[in-house]
Structure formats: structure tokens, C-alpha cells
């Protein structure tokens, strides 16, 4: 199981739009952070699956009884 940053075009565009403000705040030692959406990915049945949120994971898990058992009580 791993978490990966969302590095989509939309994310990069949003980062670019924040850059000027980020630089000003950084210059003032305000420790700005640009936060990215996290995605959960894992390998199942030889294929890597990636999920942007718990809802998408829940939808997928309903098709995999063994995975339902593994994740019981966590989602």
C-alpha cells in the first residue's frame, strides 16, 4: 500500500496559480505549504489500483469479497 501525490495537470496548474502568493509568504517566513490531494494505490490481482477518496475505494471493494474481508471495519 502506498500513498501518492496527485500530480495531474490540474494540480500543477493550481500550484502555478499559488506560486506568487507562496513566494511572498515564504519571504515573510510564514512557512507556507501547498497541499496536494493524496491517492491510495495498491496492487491487487497483478494490477495497480488507485483511489482518490474513500468513496471510490468503497465502490471498488464491493466487487471484491476478499478485499471486503481484509478492509472490514476500516472503510
Low-confidence stretches: none
Q: Quick one: how many beta strands? A: 3
* Helix content estimate: 40-55%
Identify the overall geometry.
Answer: elongated
Largest sheet: 3 strands, antiparallel
Strand content: 15-25%
Count structural domains: 1
Please report the first level of CATH classification, the CATH class: Alpha Beta
Topology as H/E string?
A: EHEEHH
Please state how the strands of the largest beta sheet are arranged side by side. Answer: 1-2-3
The CATH architecture term is: 2-Layer Sandwich
Please tell me the overall pLDDT.
80
What is the name of the CATH topology?
Rec A Protein, domain 2
The radius of gyration is: 17 Å
Structural class from helices and strands?
A: alpha+beta
Distance between the termini: 15 Å
Pfam families: Tnp_22_dsRBD
Domain L1 transposable element dsRBD-like: 10-72
InterPro entries: L1_C (IPR042566), L1_dsRBD (IPR035300), Transposase_22 (IPR004244)
Protein name: L1 transposable element dsRBD-like domain-containing protein
Amino acid at each position: 500500500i502506498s500513498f501518492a501525490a496527485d500530480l495531474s495537470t490540474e494540480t500543477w496548474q493550481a500550484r502555478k496559480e499559488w506560486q506568487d502568493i507562496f513566494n511572498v509568504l515564504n519571504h515573510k517566513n510564514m512557512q507556507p505549504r501547498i497541499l496536494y490531494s493524496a491517492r491510495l494505490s495498491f496492487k491487487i490481482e497483478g494490477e495497480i489500483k488507485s483511489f482518490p477518496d474513500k468513496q471510490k475505494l468503497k465502490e471498488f471493494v464491493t466487487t471484491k469479497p476478499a478485499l471486503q474481508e481484509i478492509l472490514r471495519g476500516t472503510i
